[in-house]
Amino acid sequence: MEDATEISDEQKWMTQFENDIKTPEETGDRYEVSLPWNENASNLQSNFALAKGRLVSTLKRLRKDKKLLEQYDKIIKQQIALEIIEEVKDPTKKAEHVHYIPHQPVVKKDSGKIRIVYDASAKCKATDQSLNDCLEKGPTLLKDLTGILIRTRLKEHLITGDIEKAFLQISIREKDRDALRFLWPAEPANEESKIKTYRFKRVPFGIISSPAHLGIVVQHHLNKNTHMIEEDILKNIYVDNIIVGTDELEELEKIYHQLKEVFYKAKMNIREFISSDKEIINKIPEEDKGNNERTKLLGIEWIPTQDIYRIKLKKWEEDTITTKRTILAHYASTFDPLGLLSPVLLPYKILLHKIWEEKADWDQPISKKLEEEWIRITKKQEGEPIEIPRKISKNKINKEGNSLQIFADASKEAMGIAAYLRCKTGEETVTKLLFAKSLIVPKSVPSKHKTIPKLELQALKIATKIAKYLEKEIDLELEEIQLWTDAIDVIEWLKSDKRLETFIENRAKIIRNYNVKHIKGEENPADIATRGTSMNEIKNTNWLEGPSWLKKDKEEWPETKTYYDTKEHERKIKPTEITLMTIIEEKVEEIDTTRSSSWIKIKRVLALALRWKKKSIKNKNKEIRPIEAKELERSEKALIKNIQKAYPPNEEERKNLNIYEDNEEILRCKGRLGAEKAHEKANQPIFLPKKARITAMIIKQTHIDMKHSGTNIVLAKLRERYWVPQARRTIRTTIFNKKNELYCITCSKKNIKAYQLPNPPDLPIYRIEEKLEKTI
């Protein structure tokens, strides 16, 4: 769930950026941005002494290795030639912000190449403000890395590239450049050489706002065009890595040229092109080619010549001291965002939990018992890397007949979920593991909720989250999403129309949105993710492809009489409940909305009233229990329908907003995003009359939920679900106008003006009379 404060800051920063950005058309060169200063900016120190001291240390280290020193100096000279940096001719000249950034080398062990790292977090004292402390971080515009990797498996052909020196392709506004100064000698090999001052003209790596600057510039540039390639890039770009897939081989060369052309307009160069197809690589110029033998694709080893992903476990060195730090570092060295090695990594997770319970220091050796268990696990996990085809199928995936089959299971120690894509490729049916997860049962869970059936229920709830996530991320039309469990108790809970224990009911309500079938325990692939296995053993299981019958036609699947069907459950709802709702909703006006200023409270009052009416009609005893979500939803719909009838839209509003009545008799405004499958709440918002008191209450509640944000943020959040005519004015009047009884007192106190100064006194007599001459 997103934090409202983060949303507010992000929107504020985005607005500031949009106002500050200058396009290549405006600058005549490239995109230009300004540094996003925050309230600490006035406290920024120059850092000159620290930068000079660090330079002395860096030079001392580099002078021990002549080649490294030459490489370092060469990089700086190249940056001068490319106008990335410039010399400051008069360092004493005053500027609004003057700051010197220390820098140091980082050498790659495998290649010996050097990279200059700028430390914008450096400060002389702990109480000082570093440059990064004085800048806003900006919004995180990164696309979901796991989602991008999932989409790479759905296309027959793949081409990748990256933006050359991405950050350095964006200019910094003239007025901010003096905050990006650094020191370097004219002749670094000479200890007596004069130290010169340079400053960045472009966005340097190491500044806290640099990733946001790059993300927003790329997004701004791509949004200027609406071609298919721009849409693909926006969806599949991660920092400076661009990944585009296609099902047509002849499209690859076209994509290469389009990528070059699109980013050329932003004065950016795409290079390091890699593809799974030799034919396209042979057509790409040498200067644009990457390493097509072996590379990393967003952290996963990819061998393009074989078009496979390879995932391996790092070997544990026997002479390594077994401490909490070294064990955690070893576990974290395996990057597996898709969860394909979840069963293999589970024993590590379980042991790490045991180590944490010991509460040992980070660098203190663990107990002998746990050390022996650790050695046993690492030896068992030694084995050949797992290699999986990059693409789900050798052939193009059909547009129809595809589904997600998600299996869930639980043990006393862990919960496991395995999601398989079942797709049609021509006449063949293919099933492959798409995403998986193993989770340790937290120690904090009360023992009464640690029974196997309840853990199975929790695992199934997690499976619904994964189902939603995958449905959003994959570029395929899905015929169905089917959940599977080997817990008969769980399915019986789902089928029950009685009030269940709160823990069970809360989870069952979520799971009931999906069809759930029973599977035998020995056939459930998620079982492996709850008990763990080794690198060698996992290859002999059904983990990577699921049960063998999953590839067959559905008529050949094992029969099961234990299942939950959403449609059957809906038909079980008694008609009297619907009739009752109609009877009661006609009398909603009896609720006096002026007796409360809270939208939440008025919904709860009506929910209780509806419940009481329902119990009275059924002649049942009064039952005291918490208000359920469905009861609140019912009361909200009743209140909204009531105000829509009291303040119906006029003809002009009906026409301009495309107002229509949905199947629940609620008036909605029809948007234009239907083709993109936008969320119904955003695409078809509920019409709220601006004069209704309920509308004002909803606005105020949104304002409170958004941490008392301003009009723009409240409006953006409100429009995710509702449409209010003249919304901006209505929000301002509701929240900030003291004449409105629902105005926000908290904001009124924060925005209070200072006391008015009293009228000035009369001028003293000596200010208005002529000065008398002195007499002796």
UniProtKB/TrEMBL annotation:
Which parts of the sequence belong to the Reverse transcriptase domain? Answer: 108-271
From what superkingdom does this record's organism come? Eukaryota
Q: Name one Pfam family in it.
A: Peptidase_A17
- InterPro entries given for it? DNA/RNA_pol_sf, Retrotrans_Pao, Rev_trsase/Diguanyl_cyclase, RT_dom
This one is known as Reverse transcriptase domain-containing protein
Source organism per entry reads Meloidogyne enterolobii (Root-knot nematode worm)
- Phylogenetic lineage: Eukaryota, Metazoa, Ecdysozoa, Nematoda, Chromadorea
